[in-house]
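Pipeline run #58 for the internal structure catalog. This entry was flagged by the ingest filter as a single-chain record with no existing model, so it goes straight to prediction. Upstream metadata was stripped on purpose; only the residue string is passed forward. Reviewer on rotation: M.T. Logging verbosity set to normal.
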Amino acid sequence: MELVHEQCYRAVRSRDVRFDGRFYTGVRTTGIYCRPVCPAPAPKPENIDFYPSAAAAEEAGFRPCKRCRPDSLPGTPAWNGTSATVTRALRLIAGGALDDGGIEELAGRLGVGDRQLRRLFLQHVGASPVAVNRSRRAHFAKTLLEQTSLRVTEIAFAAGYASVRSFNDHFKRVFRATPSEVRVRESGGAMGGARGEKSRGATEPLALRLTCRDPIDWPHLAGYFETRRVPGVETVTNGAYHRVITADDKTNILTVRMAKDGVRIELDRPGGRDLMKVCNRVRNQFDLDANPKRVEEVLAEDPFLAESVAAHPGMRVPGAYDPFELILRAIVGQQISVKGTTTILGRIVEAHGEPLDPGLARDGLTHKAPTPETLAGANLDGLGMNGAKVRTIQAAARAVADGAIPLDGSASFEELDAALLAVPGIGPWTAGYVAMRAFRNPDAFLPTDLGVKHALADIVPSKRRTEIEARAERWRPWRAYALLHLWRSPA
């Protein structure tokens, strides 16, 4: 990503929110890096350098500003038009790829050499994959220090560090303070120096706030998940989303609700090394890394969408906590209503899901979702589906279980589309819907969707696919968000 000094400095002087997250400012005289919207007085141009990512600024020796908090800004260079390989690598890193393996293994999953991957990262991100992962760990650890009473040893483990010593060394390098000092400073001294090391119960609940850019249309998200919940696995009550998950090989209950400056997640059990992965899945499910203002700038340029964009700010694309669940829903829902789909999914969960222990089940949460391995050979007769749909579900489950449909983020959108279409019974609509919600493709579009045809009837009266696709070209690269506005159309 090319950063022109004069242009970046103008953006810093203007504090234009449209540049927030697109680059970071390192001030050599203070050793601090900031967001372009930082309220502090703009430094002299000869004293600053610009970096494409927070990780790059940290690798250059800068620490995050305490006023604009660049370390808490959601999103990654994946949203800034980087190469497809870097985008896929960032998804894998966010999922913990470098916690369990090295750069060579990561490059192998992407089909490139490790030297090529490092070169691409330096070109687009300004830092190596390892530096990006270190930055991710340190920022997550800082969040845990500020918001929880987890012990420092537990935080080091949850953030993916191999030892407490390596955690302390790296944390101090990034934030110029020890973990204990940050905890005391952020709590205003209320915690005391030792609170973070107090003994905790093995089942003590945990709460954590995940940041996102304003605005967020939470009622739309909660309503979407409420009408499409998987019975026994998910519920929505009073605007809060609840579901059964597995983390650190243990069953847990996750709750996600709206909070100030983001969303709040709650876990009945505290979690360990998988905690960061849980947070990443929630970020994907609720589209928390999106930049709504940048999306709306593009869509509002079309007079046809402008009114809807103005009426529904902060639209997010509802994702899926478990991509396989979304594939299952898409297949079951072919040519039947949302309500009918939900009914059949409930029958599948009751027949093949793992029942929860009585002490954990509550408020409609009764089962763990069935795995691809289970459904690949399961008897699905008598659940309300015809033989062709049953065979499609089993074929898709086998493809996921065998890795033919990779769910780890290593495949490109084109490769995922081809893998889905290779399953008998999955057509372009189903593949596009899965790409939009399960694989987080912000430009996914469904030109054959009946709702899209009705919404565009006045401007594309022919309802031909080619003409609908041509009309949607002006919405790139955010056609998935345009879909949501079309589906909310009175038509």
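catalog note: Residues 5-58 form a domain with the DNA Methylphosphotriester Repair Domain fold (CATH 3.40.10.10).
catalog note: The CA atoms of residues 344 and 384 lie 6 Å apart.
status: ready for reviewer M.T.
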